[in-house]
């Protein structure tokens, strides 16, 4: 065997050993460290996989929720369209009824105006209880009927409501506040009425009086008789205690009564 090749092989082996050992030493990576690094990498990969699965699950949940919302919105649109169609049908029906009632309304208008005028005259000549307010409401109703801003059937309902209020006034007793003409001035007073027959007043200065009819008109008079004053104050006191029925002795303030 030739000694030269043998020496070359030994030299090459030494060189390989010289090169390999320092590289391993330079890296400083032991088998335990490599295993720990591999475990760490696997853990990170598993965590990323979990994150991907969680994101995928959240996306599917959001898509399902959006689909449910879309279905609900579509159902709402369908209901709105159904309601709109029903409203259009109702409107057409009402318009047809209004057109057919037009002739009847024209015939009813003179009757309403006559009844309104009669009620106005009755209020103007009756007990002076909040007359200005009551007459102003009737005048406004007349204006709406004449201008056509209020349909005749609705005007009839309003006028009937006025009549019902007038019936209620004739039945009720109570204390109210209103402005009355006294000694040439407008004075705020508490008033106590007996249905639509008598009206008494009480001023903040302690004076009391009553409304008396005479000469086709009403006037407010202060009572000077101490006994009459006492009777009126007792009536106010009873109404203030919600005693609206019973025996009350009062001055004669009936329309057409003794002057």
Written overview of the protein:
The protein has 259 residues and is of the alpha+beta class. Among the domains are: 105-169; 173-240, no CATH class. Helix content is 66%, strand content 15%. It has 5 helices and 5 strands; from the N terminus they run ααααβββββα. The protein has a 5-stranded antiparallel β-sheet. A hairpin with a 5-residue loop joins strand 3 (198-202) and strand 4. Helix 2 (31-125) packs across helix 3, helix 2 (31-125) crosses helix 4 and helix 3 packs antiparallel against helix 4. The longest helix has 95 residues, at 31-125. The model is unreliable at 1-27 and 255-259 (pLDDT under 50).
Secondary structure category: alpha+beta
Percent helix among the residues?
55-70%
Order of helices and strands: HHHHEEEEEH
General form: elongated
Low-confidence stretches: 1-27, 255-259
Binned strand content: 5-15%
Gap between N and C termini, in Å? 170 Å
Beta strand count: 5
Put simply, the count of helices is: 5
Give the biggest sheet: 5 strands, antiparallel
* Strand order across the largest sheet: 1-2-3-4-5
Q: What Rg, in angstroms, do the CA atoms define?
A: 51 Å
Mean pLDDT: 79
